[in-house]
Model the fold of this input.
Amino acid sequence: RINNNNNNRMKKVQLKQIYRTVLPVMLGGAILVSCTGNKKTSENMEKDYEKGTFGYDLNYLSEKDGGLIVLKSEDEKAQVILSAKYQGKVFTSTANGLEGNSHGFVNYNFFDAGIVDEHMNGFGGEDRFWLGPEGGKYSVYFEQGKEQVYDHWHTPKAIDIEEWKVNRVTGKEAVFVKEMEQENYLGNLLNIGIERKISLLSDNNVADKLQVEMPEGVNAVAYETANKITNKNDFEWTPETGTVCIWILDMFNPSEAAVTVVPYHAGDEKELGKVVTSDYFGEIPADRLVDVDEVLYLKTDGKSRGKLGMNAKRTKAIAGNYDPFARRLTIITFDADPDATYLNQEWNPDRDPLVGDALNAYNDGPLEDGSIMGPFLELESCSPAAFLKPGETLSHKHNVFHFTGEEADLSPIAEKLLGVDLEKVKNIF
Done:
């Protein structure tokens, strides 16, 4: 009995020692895990932002792509969301931080549907890289011999659903690369190298590029896209083999009062060609497209599908859109060469493939069956035809500038760049 009591006392002492040494470690570990978990949770908690704000879109897109790249100004008012997963897109931007308006069109309905569309996966994005021509004998969207109608139209996967590689990232720019093979309508397999650099522009950069002064009370977000394609084939791209062009498309949110503004060079039609092609999807009605004093105005309310095109001799390599509801003036500028050859994108292989547009503008609207992809509006630019020898490269720059503020402060910018005041734009229709 004495031995048992001693053994019991020894066990109690041992247990106390164990509790004194092990339990604090266990508790400390639990506290450490708990604190770390709480800290991580608090850091990752997403503030609820109102739909239409940049913060809302940043949260939403982060669920779709965990590798988003966000370029920011020093004060974090100007921000731009980029995605390698979604083909090097600029998804959207803001001039007023997380609480500010999100300028790009993000197609929530398509994302949420979770489908893969055999024709085009319309995720949206306020600036995306595509290749032209869409139609015609050089088309890279239609197989050889197929009638050029919607049922046979397929966007090349490399510019539709395939992920691109991130070549380099800094706080103010990102470079994406992609290599692709694509057969054209003539049956030739084109090997294409793509490089796309997107750079956030400071207010000083904006002032220098546009030669405008930024009024007090106006905020801006702007970026330059420098796009390159390289002939990776062992043969030259010629009119006989067919070729491609760089095609940049900007998708923005429309509104009841939004208007696209396209100034152009006046002159003899025999020398410069016609002012505008306005029948891509049927003729644009006269109450939606007007031509006044060498400026075209296109109503962009997202309620009627229509597209216009302008050749490189007519365009001034600039266009804009004004939305008085969002208090947003958008300007695009791009490279244009009036002496170069541009590709025809029409869905008609019988048309001359070497006569095409440098600038396009689009207003979305319902199709005949009542369905609609957006609505959204688009401003677009194209490079000249890439008639390149093996290893040669073609470059095309396309810049986007958003200015937000009071109409009286934005109007001088529109007058300087587009040649019209915003009061006229607002009331043109």
Remarks:
- The helical segments are 2-44, 54-64, 108-113, 203-210, 269-272, 407-418, 422-427.
